[in-house]
Every structure is written in C-alpha cells, then in structure tokens.
Write a structure and sequence with these properties.
Blueprint: E1 10-14, H1 18-31, E2 40-42, H2 48-59, E3 68-71, E4 84-89, H3 96-103, E5 117-120, H4 131-134, H5 166-171, E6 174-178, E7 184-188, E8 194-197, E9 200-203, H6 204-214, H7 217-221, H8 224-231, H9 234-246, H10 251-260, H11 268-277, H12 284-296, H13 301-316, H14 327-335, H15 338-345, H16 348-362
Parallel strand pairs: 1-3, 1-4, 2-3, 4-5
Antiparallel strand pairs: 6-7, 8-9
Helix pairs in contact: 12-13, 12-16
C-alpha cells in the first residue's frame, strides 16, 4: 500500500473491523517514511474523543498530521475532508450503497486536486461496471429539425456578489417530508444518500423521521431559546454534541444533513433548528454581519482584531473554528506563538474569556 501512494498525501484506509484497523495503523507507522507517532491513526466508533480530535485535525487542510486514517465503518459517510487523495480498500464491500459512500470520501473538491486514487486490494473495482453505479442510461433525444427562432435577448449581467448558482439550486428536485409536528422539511432529492443505523443503511427521509419521532430531537434540545443558549457557549456546545451522539444523532450525520438541506454555508446550529423547529437556515456570513455591532462593542482594538480573525475563519470553514480546543491553533496561526498572543491580548484566561464571551453575541436572535 505504501508503495502505491504518495506517503505525504492524506489517505483513508477502510479495514475489516476495529482490531484490523489498529493492526494496519501499527504496521503503517512501522514501515512508513515518516516516524511521527501521529502519522497514521485509527478513527473508529470506540476511539471516542481522541478519535474525534484526530478526525478534526485530519479535516484541517492546513495540517498534514495525521496523514493517514485507518477505520472500519465510522468514516463511510459524512466526512467533510476535501483534500483526501487516496482511498484504500482492505475489506470486502458488500453492496453498492456502501461502495458509493466510501468512494464519495475522495470526490470532495479542493484547490489543486484534479483526481484521487483508489487502491483496491479486494477487487471491489468491478462495482463500477454495475448498472447501479450510474443507473440506467438516458436515451438521447432524436435529432428533429427545428424552426429557426428569433435571436434571444442577452441576459442582463448579475450584480457583483450575486449567487450565480441560485437558479440551478432552485431547479433541483426537492424531497418534501412532513414530520409529526405537521410542518414540512425539504431535502435535496438524492436517492444515493444513505445513513447507517445499527450497521444498516436507511434513506435520508427515514433518518430524518427517526431523529424527529424516535429520538425526539425537539425534546432533547429543549426550546429554541435553550438550544441557542447552549450553542452560544463552546463548552456547553461540546457537551450538547456529545449528548446527541450518545442518543444516536452523530455529528457526521448532521454534516450530511447540512448538505441535503443545501445549508453548507450555514452552521450546524441551523441544521438542528431546521430539523427540530422548521426554522429557516442563516448563512454564517449573514450571522456575523447581523450581530457584528454587538460582538465588537465592548472589545478593545487588539481584541477586535483577534475576534475578527476568528470570525473570518468561522465564515470560511465552519463552527469547528469556534471550539475551545482550536484556540491554541488559532493563536499560533495569527500571532506566531502563544507568548506573542499574550503580549497583545493578555493572560491565557483573559484570552479564553474573550473567545467564549463574543460567541454569546454571535448567536443572539435577530430582532
């Protein structure tokens, strides 16, 4: 495997089970060119918080460690890692749904990424020839002569900043799902998107109804006001995500739903609000713009510059940039070192207070 890939490229290795993933991790670290202890790590359901930390670091395109992840089932879906260059198959794949989901981990676009490589040790490649891979071919329309028409008026150019994709998004078929609260939720109609529950694939519609009716997501979250309060503090936000995961609502699944409701520019907070209360989603950029006056009011010049930097990362990357565990990385990236950051912003506890406090204002409800 190591001979077949560029060892500096991010790679996901799919193994037979968790013990196999641990064995493969150890073998890779023994034989790889890199001798860093975190060059190859295991991320499975049993790895808990450390696995989530490794996954978060792997998804960060500015970090090269860990470079290789070994897994069994956990990373089949919902991993928003755009710079994955190699998918390695070390276990049999039994159905087309699972095959599509695994291959999909390599198809995310990233600057300079024009292709990705599948290293197949289990002869899964034949599934590309299966009719289910692309579905039935569409017959071409017959070439019938047409009557020349008047030349069309040129389209009026859009104003700078207008979203050129709006028309395409609106034309995509929507799956309308009425939940037990009587309100309709809309998902992009994607028949090939599945979620795994107890090892079995279910459709997006079934998963959404399971969240709402079986897991009773609105009751888990409490009122909208309670959810907003919990989400506005990175410490209670982390506790809430852990609670949801224990109940069967994993963060990876929320990320997949974020795609299906066309809210990739929004926050996972908006995904939860949309599912639980049918509230419209808000883009991260709009949330910052709406609340910027309240955010900056009580900050001094140095704090404003720091918070502005954090908010730019939030808009560009997502809510993970607001996690307390990310703080040291953010400070080092902006100031070069924690010591240099302290010279600008005060003690570590003062910096952490600034980092936590401004988020209260970021998630205030627009009046």
């Amino acid at each position: 495997m190591l001979a077949a890939i560029n060892q500096k490229e991010k790679t996901i290795v799919f193994c037979a089970n968790q013990a196999h993933a641990a064995l493969v991790r150890d073998l890779i670290n023994q034989h790889a060119d890199s001798k860093r202890i975190d060059y190859c790590v295991r991320v499975t359901a049993n790895d808990g918080a450390i696995g989530d930390t490794y996954l978060k670091q792997f998804r960060d395109n500015e970090k090269m460690l860990p470079t290789i992840l070994t897994t069994s089932q956990k990373l089949t879906t919902g991993v928003d890692a755009r710079n994955v260059r190699n998918i390695v198959l070390l276990r049999p794949i039994n159905n087309m749904i699972e095959f599509k989901q695994i291959i999909g981990r390599g198809t995310r676009l990233f600057e300079g990424k024009n292709y990705f490589t599948i290293v197949d040790f289990v002869n899964a490649y034949h599934m590309f020839n299966d009719a289910e891979w692309d579905g039935e071919p569409i017959e071409p329309e017959p070439n019938t002569p047409s009557i020349p028409s008047e030349p069309k008026e040129p389209k009026t150019p859009k104003e700078p900043g207008a979203d050129d994709d709006d028309d395409d998004v609106d034309k995509k078929p929507k799956l309308r799902i009425r939940l037990s609260d009587g309100k309709v939720r809309e998902l992009q109609s994607m028949s090939s998107t599945y979620f795994y529950v107890d090892g079995k694939p279910i459709s997006a519609e079934e998963f959404l109804k399971r969240l709402f009716d079986t897991l009773k997501l609105p009751e888990l979250l409490g009122s909208e006001e309670q959810l907003r309060k919990l989400w506005a503090n990175p410490l209670t936000r982390r506790d809430l995500l852990i609670k949801l995961e224990k109940e069967g609502c994993h963060k990876d699944d929320l990320l997949k739903l974020q795609e299906l409701i066309n809210a990739e520019n929004s926050d996972l907070f908006d995904v939860l609000e949309y599912i639980a209360y049918a509230k419209p989603t808000v883009s991260r950029a709009a949330r910052v713009e709406t609340n910027k006056d309240n955010i900056y009011t009580l900050l001094n010049e140095q704090q404003r510059e720091f918070v502005s930097y954090v908010l730019r990362n939030y808009v560009n990357v997502g809510v993970d940039e607001l996690d307390v565990g990310k703080l040291s990385t953010v400070l080092t990236a902006k100031y070069g070192s924690i010591h240099a950051a302290q010279e600008q912003l005060g003690t570590v506890s003062e910096i952490q207070k600034t980092f936590i406090d401004f988020q209260q204002h970021l998630y205030e409800e627009a009046s």
